[in-house]
Amino acid sequence: MATRYYQVEYLGYATVDLYLSNPMIPWIVSEIKKRAKSKKMTLSVVDGCVCARDQNNNSDTDFTHPLALISRFTIPNGNYNNFLYVLRDLNQPLLYCHLYHAFDPEEVSDYVTEPQC
Fold it and tell me: What is the DSSP pairing of strand 70-74 with strand 63-66?
């Protein structure tokens, strides 16, 4: 199967402790948006990892997040253009919440249902 690429805006991340609960998600999204450090990225799922590359330069992958460490995926506040996933840190008792904005809500549903290679 060919790799699919998704054009998104990476809105940033927030670090939280292991006691993350669903009622905290709107607060986390708000905190990420306050920092306003967005950049256009291309996401793909390759070899069991979410891979992200900055669209404005032709560098190597900016970051990769193993699917096995992603513990939660959510569409916050009913905004189907945004999605957030939670990444566990194996070295510290922390979680990283990464927030993205997709330009097409259909891409978010495609991304969620893409086979976990």
Answer: unpaired
